[in-house]
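We modelled the chain as a single entity of 704 amino acids. Its sequence is:
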Amino acid sequence: MKTLRHLLSVLTIALIVAMAAGTIVEKFHGNDYALSHVYGSWWFVALWALLTIGMMIMMITRKSWQRPVVCALHSSVLLILLGALLTMLTGQHGEMTLKPGVATNQFTVEKHGDKHTENLPFSLTLSRFEVETYPGTHSPMDFVSHLQVLDNGSVLDATISMNHILKHRHYRFYQSDYDEEGNSVLSVAHDPWGVGVTYAGYLLLFVTIVGMFLDRKSEFRQLLQKTASKAAVLAVLLTMSVFLPAQAANKPRTLPRESADKMGQMYVMYKGRVCPLQTLAKDFTTKLYGKARYQGYTPEQVFSGWLFYTDDWQNAPIPKLEKDLKRNKQRAAEEKQQIINMLLNGQLLKMFPHADSLREVTWYSQNDQLPLTIPDDEYLFIRKQMSLCKEYVVTGKLDALNELFEKTKIYQEKYSLGLTQPASKYRSERLYNRLTMGRWLPMVNITLGLLCFAIALICIGKGRKLPRNVHGAMVIWMSLLCAFLSLLFILRWIVGGHVPMAGSFDSMNLLALSICVITLIMSRKYEMALPAGLLMTGVVLLVQMMGGSNPPVTHLMPVLSSPLLSLHVTVIMIAYALLFFIMLNGISAVVVRVSQPENTAYLQRLQDISTIMLYPAVALLTAGIFIGAVWANISWGNYWSWDPKEVWALITLLIYIVPLHKTVWTVFRKPMFFHVYGILAFLSVLITYFGVNFLLGGMHSYAG
């Protein structure tokens, strides 16, 4: 038994190292090379096979059938691995191009760099291909292929679009791409055995995870009962310095706030959608100055200052531009200069809608080439509106300027044929923009967290609980923070028309919200969760702020418009939040060990609490990975592609599964080993989320 445990340890470590190395190989040599030399190699398959055999032997020697939940849990893993093997041996994945009116029954398969052609037992004919756009814009909403399936003399009509596949005789077809000639490119998947077996493993795994939490004899339920009336310590040591840049002595001129706000109420076509000009002004200011406000000016005032008092603003310092030039970041500097040039030459202000004879609306800027068929009154308004605005600014006729802004908005609503934002969405976007202008929130959270942590340490040293008023104040603040983040989430959802989970900014916001909810739930029994929750939320929001300023709301890519994406991101973020708590709990244990080495009972309580959190964290992480696999299978026809994000998520799962097997790896029964492992294990989470996004790349990378 001891030899088998050592063998399983070596195999697990070898697999983790091999997969981590594979992501680095893919970074420098590409996905195909990594697939052929690492993930598809004989030795990698042999590692998985040996680990599987070791698991089976362990199940037999430990008589796992006497514990149905444990037996079913490990059996589900074996089923999933069997499904993966069947997919590798019998599955086919390829691509076919359909030309309008031409029947095709061949698709190209590429494996290990070699391409060959396979035949379908039926043929497909493309009737037409179309790109559906969001109303009033040219941004693609969906790609749709209308085709016919010719099979043994019968003809079936079918439609394929993003997230809507065609299934026929164990073949699955996915909308992959298209070209300017109207040809449609489809991905083809033929996996008659692997998908079914793998999905059966997923289902069994889900059922057994639920059973594990309901089983009264499980370690999770026993620990939950044991610690129900005891307080837990969750803390982190964090030091930071905040340096505020000095303000310029002479502020450049701009419009009064009321007039600038009126300007921001007009519409503009920006980032492929019609939105308040306030959104463009906020993005413009953030790109130039790194934050939404500058020298006390609102984004609309900064924008209007550049527009109407250009000389003042060109002579004023732009700290981010100067830093980019000093650090030789030519591309970043050019981007900032380009957005200034686009504003000054009018290209950025596509404010004037015009509907053609087919009632298709196009938004133009003042200097764009206008259609010859445009009526004279529209032509004159487009050409003269901005010049008249500048005239009113120069002559100080601010009332006339405000009235012109209002008339322009009425003009926009009339000539866009009602395709501007609904009133509810318009108000939501303006409110969202106002609520997300400051950077104070993470700083306040971190400061409060550090202060409460210091108070908690003093109380621990004296053997007392947190003062009731301090605990109550933290609960109130955390509740308000939870409500505020929920409001931002809802507003961004309303404005974008989709659940905001598709980018790093959105996922970090969801992570912060998840931490708030978990903290409030835990605070009833574990009062020390509050200082840790405050710190964690502050750190997440700070990282969100440092990683990239609040991005503008944009239309969602068609392939991301799936409810499975929302579920996938949600459960992953909650899992990360729990693992974050475990890491902070480990740091707390190290602090207690150094300051109170005789307090072993306290370290044991911390381990119990971390283990309680580890079970749902692993369960959610597992569920998130498999939901992502199902989503990928629906969208691309391949539930696992060895993308760096997928690989590191699997590595993270393997790392955190290990300490749950205390009967196999008995060293995890020692509290300090468990806590140190929990601290180091969190590095895999950081690599999965940040390392892949910023360093390794891949399909899941969204670093901006």
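As a brief sanity check on the tokenised model: The first strand starts at residue 92 and ends at 98. Residues 228-249, 700-704 have pLDDT under 50 and may be disordered.
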